[in-house]
Amino acid sequence: MDLKLAGKTVLVLASSRGLGKASAAAFAKEDANIMITGRSEESLKEAEKELLSLSCRGRVGYYVCDITKEAEIKALVEHTMKIFGAVDVLVNNAGGPPAGTFEDFDDDDWQRAFDLNLMSFVRAIRAVLPSMKQSGGGRIVNITSSSMKQTLDNLILSNTFRAGLMGLAKSLSQELAPHGILINSLGPGKIATDRVTEIDGRKAEQESKKAEDVRRESEAAIPLGRYGYPEEFAGQVVFYGSFANTYVTGQTLLVDGGLIKAL
Ligand code: NAD
Questions:
Q1: Which of 103, 163, 209, 254 is buried most deeply by CB count within 10 Å?
Q2: Mutate to test the pocket of ligand 1, among 44, 50, 144, 195 (most ligand atoms within 8 A of CB)
Q3: What confidence category does residue 134 fall into, taking pLDDT thresholds of 50, 70 and 90?
Q4: How remote is the CA of residue 233 from the centroid of ligand 1, in Å?
């Protein structure tokens, strides 16, 4: 299938590792121009090298940016426009908020999670809209969590802001459709990134178990019997972020091997 991404420009937030980097690589394989972002120049240089080693036809750039800062997001989009001339596809992604229950967090914690997991997406969308409107269309994909459909224990910050994002994305799908801009949200279940390995490692320590046993138990709860690969998740990001997707907007799709049973 021609995903109609060759020569388009894709901006992927928080893409020095994990699902963001896997998504950037999948878009690179479609010969799009890619702008990756993150807070560490060193990690971004490494990620850029990896993307360039795929020897695709598009160009690759990076920009150091803390996505919790409005001014930095504005500067990131201005930089992307300067280098590539447009932003055709925006992939919103961020680190996950800290784990915990209601009484673990004060107002500063709530504000940080709001800035990281909701406002970063709002600000990035605001900054790319003029380019997408000018070129007559665009695609936005939000990387969120299965907590959009079913709350996760001990993750109250994620449960709150991911739900807010669903409302935002559905409203925007209505407002942006006349401009040819389609927006969808993808929720990972358990995809084997460094973050998931770190979480399993911490759980193993707390429960005095081996990390492999924690992973095996966790995989047993997934109908497909295993964690997903970042490339599998990225394949969905690329489709919904592509111009082959001409009629799906405002949707929330889980990529979870059947883990979540909510309808
Ligand atoms: P990850 O921790 O491997 O990657 C997150 C990236 O975000 C990192 O590159 C990190 O440097 C970057 N980041 C964090 N804060 C940032 C900031 N202020 N500015 C710029 N960059 C920042 O995580 P992942 O596994 O790739 O997950 C990506 C998203 O998906 C997270 O929000 C996570 O909570 C969510 N998620 C992932 C899974 C999974 O199975 N991997 C499951 C549910 C939800």
A1: 254
A2: 195
A3: very high
A4: 13
pLDDT digits (tens, 9 = 90+) for 89-127: 999 999 999 999 999 999 999 999 999 999 999 999 999
The 10s digit of each residue's pLDDT in 187-197 is 999 999 999 99
Contact 29, 56 (CB under 8 A): yes
CB-facing half-sphere around the CA of 63: CA atoms within 13 A = 21
Residues across the chain:
263
pTM over 0.90: yes
Assess if CATH 1.10.287.1080 describes domain 9-189+230-251: no
CATH 3.40.50.720 residue ranges in the chain? Answer: 9-189+230-251
